[in-house]
Amino acid sequence: VQKPIYCGDSTKLLNFLTKKHKESPVIIFNDENGMGSQVVVFVNVKNGTATVVENIPNGYSCILASGHDAMVVPIKESPDT
């Protein structure tokens, strides 16, 4: 399946998500794609929006997914953790 993905300047995209949509990063991890990319999940808990962004080392970022009705689910510690 192919879908459109928006890519652009990392700083502009970060400002767009944090200032206009009031989303904050809640998960950050390094992608194992061999490109050295970082993936960030942004969420606005108040209005339920969320965006998944891949930050590429060349100064560009891509929105991989975005949507609404997002909820942050608490992680329950298992006894063997």
Task: Please supply descriptive tags for the structure shown above.
1 helix; 81 residues; mainly beta; five-stranded antiparallel β-sheet
Widest sheet: strand ordering? 1-5-4-3-2
Helical stretch tally: 1
Main structural class: mainly beta
User: Averaging pLDDT over every residue, what do you get?
Assistant: 92
Low-confidence stretches: none
What does this molecule look like?
- The chain is mainly β and 81 residues long.
- The protein contains 1 helix and 5 strands, in the order E-H-E-E-E-E.
- The protein has one helix at residues 10-20; strands spanning 6-9, 24-30, 38-44, 49-56, 60-67.
- A 5-stranded antiparallel beta sheet has the order 1-5-4-3-2.
- A hairpin with a 7-residue loop joins strand 2 and strand 3 (38-44).
List strands and helices in order, with pairings.
Blueprint: E1 6-9, H1 10-20, E2 24-30, E3 38-44, E4 49-56, E5 60-67
Antiparallel strand pairs: 1-5, 2-3, 3-4, 4-5
Quick description:
The protein has 1 helix and 5 strands, in the order E-H-E-E-E-E. It has 81 residues and is mainly beta.
